[in-house]
Amino acid sequence: MKNKNLLDDTDREILEFLSENARTSNREIAQKMGVAEGTIRSRIKRMVDERSIRFSALSREENQDTATLCYVGLRVDLANTTAVATSLCAFHEARFVARTLGRFDIFAVVVVSSVEGLNRFVSDRVMPLEGVRRVHTSIVTNMIKYDHRWGRVT
Hints:
A four-stranded antiparallel β-sheet has the order 2-3-1-4. By secondary structure, the chain is of the alpha+beta class. The chain has five helices and four strands.
């Protein structure tokens, strides 16, 4: 029996086509891969049903050109790590939150309206969270590479 959620080479090849353009037709993918259209259709359906993949639309936010993308690293008391990470997830500015090993206990990617917005976010919302000991911030000044397959950041 085939292991659920295990992608084979054919699945990964289909995903390569879809990651370049999710609107590529099953017929076009099938022709390029030299397989039947039904094979593509059934494999995509299986991957969606098994939650191995999902489709979503990326939008361009109106304030994207003025948004400030920032990295926020937090040092947190061990007993409060989960609570702080959960609180950060509730903030609409937070686009990515992870518990980490290394220099920071929690790492977040946030989008704010300005440098002043980052200051307010850290001072008024992050620092008051119980257990936060130190917050380090970095502001993205120029994005050199962004791969849309990673997910929408702003």
